[in-house]
Design a protein that fits this description.
Two copies of one chain form a homodimer.
Chain A (H helix, E strand, L loop, with lengths): L1 E2 L1 H7 L4 H8 L3 H8 L7 H10 L4 H4 E2 L3
Antiparallel strand pairs in A: 1-2
Helix pairs in contact in A: 2-3
The structure holds a DNA duplex (30 and 30 nucleotides).
DNA sequence: GGCCGATGTCAAGTGTGCTTGACATCGGCG
DNA sequence: CGCCGATGTCAAGCACACTTGACATCGGCC
């Protein structure tokens, strides 16, 4: 499950801490997801997609 | 996080066990998600959306 | 070189997604 | 009524999503 988080975040010149605050999780969680440590929960994925005005399928790529 | 699982499943005349097998989880997991006990993981939500040919946003409704 | 903000990562703890196994209930059908 | 498949639900256990706190590293800037 790859994602475009890091690109979208840096495009906007946000730090991991900035993004974490906007979606209500810890900075370590953002870092773990960007670096592929684990996948976000579904409600968290919805909040991220909403923030970037994208469909979940546009943010997260199913590589099985 | 509401979902349209039960409707889509019964439209196709599938049992919970049928659906569980198609997406690779236990029957109890399907039941728990249909009855709102908890939300599926993101990879599992992708499998369900793919099975029904829907966007994740069309299957799961964010009610926060 | 020395400072500092941003990032990566570890450890330990909590909550939840999901499992197997079991049992109760409901509805349709003989 | 009695049977049976489908559904709902409980308990116990495991894996993972996420937390706080801490520390190492990297890059830019003085």
């Amino acid at each position: 499950m790859k994602n475009r988080l890091k690109d979208l975040r840096t495009e906007r010149a946000w730090t991991q801490a900035d993004l974490a605050q906007r979606v209500g999780v810890s900075r370590q969680t953002i870092n773990a997801i960007e670096t592929g440590k684990f996948d976000p929960s579904l409600p968290f994925a919805f909040r991220l997609a909403k923030l970037f005005n994208l469909k979940i399928e546009e943010l997260f790529l199913d590589d099985q």
